[in-house]
Amino acid sequence: MRAVDPRGALVLRAGRHPLAHEVERNLRLWCTRHPSAMPDAVVAVSGGPDSMALLTIMAALHERGTGPARIAACCVHHHLRPEAERELETVRAHCELLRVPFFRRDVHPAEEPGNLAAAARRLRYEALTECVIQGRMGAVLTAHHADDQLETVLMALCRGGASFGVGGMRWSRRLSEDVVLMRPLLDIPKARLVAFAEELGVPWHQDASNEDPDSARGMLRTKVLPHLLERWPKAAVHVAHTAEAIDGMGNALRMSQRADPENKDYRFELGGMERAIPEVLPYLIQLMQPPSAQGDSRYWAEELLRNDPEPRVYDAGPDWELRIQGGEAQFTERAGRPGTT
């Protein structure tokens, strides 16, 4: 009697699963600018159900020739939890089963100054980028899903401040000149990823630190989202699609104001927009301002709406000033700023 190939059976079932078709669709339609040329990719795997599900699906897509020509997995060890070593070995063993090359990267965010979570994120992406470059690949795939997007949008709404983050995370963005980050699960709820892993017997671990109610995301996950999703089960998917629409409209506004992407003139005219749709002004100002500019975009929008013919100058951080006159606004570099004359 012929022995059952556990890898073959798992890859076959994963490839036939509806989630595999959705992930392939998202990769080709939303993540990849040129669908006919999907880049070779490194899957970022932590050992949780979402990243283990993504790894399994990518192995299935690779096997049937509808995914990247080459894939690998990378597990970044942050040395923050003693159980992380055991989780890493689970990832390694699953990669061996799937015959996916496995890479380990060690980082030490606890030794970095400043916010621990921010340091861990920065070092993690640096390690993943390095792994892609060393492997002569082109992309990092992460398992950010619809619930993550919902958390991101809710935090942006509650925090407010100088950035309109309600567009949430993007399907793809550049990590470096040669490496792109892709998120093919961005409109898929976590519950479906957990169900996929359980149905196919994919091993995974739960990181208890993700449920820490003292952190912003942990508080949302443990105290807010369970009630919200019980009342509106499709909330995460709906918010994910709304966030991508907001992000797309923001990009369209940016392109309409600055058609030439190489144009560094941070000057724009409203052309009557302020009377037709004044609500868009704070967002438009944020889209058009230099990356290092700082200030209250809503206040600046109110000053623009005054349409005062007299020129006024506003502080926009240590490097920039904002000059407003009538329906025109221009960010100007301060005299003496490094690199200016």
Walkthrough of the structure:
With 341 residues, the protein is α/β, with parallel strands linked by helices. The protein has two domains: 6-151 and 168-210, Rossmann fold, CATH 3.40.50.620; 262-333, no CATH class. Helix content is 47%, strand content 13%. The chain has twelve helices and ten strands. The chain is elongated and about 75 Å long. The model has no long low-confidence stretch (mean pLDDT 87).
Main features:
single chain, 341 residues, 13% strand
**What class, by secondary structure content?**
alpha/beta
- Assign the CATH topology of the largest domain: Rossmann fold
Largest sheet: 6 strands, mixed
Task: Kindly provide the name of the CATH class of the largest domain.
Answer: Alpha Beta
Number of domains: 2
Order of helices and strands: HHEHEHEHEHEEHHHEHHHEEE
CATH architecture of the largest domain: 3-Layer(aba) Sandwich
Number of strands: 10
Tell me, rounded to a whole number, the average pLDDT.
87
**Beta-sheet strand percentage?**
5-15%
**Count the helices. How many?**
12
Going by CATH, the homologous superfamily of the largest domain would be HUPs
Low-confidence stretches: none
Helix content: 40-55%
**Judging from the principal axes of the Cα atoms, what is the shape?**
elongated
Largest sheet: spatial strand order: 3-2-1-4-6-5
What is the CA-atom radius of gyration, in angstroms? 23 Å
Distance between termini? Answer: 81 Å
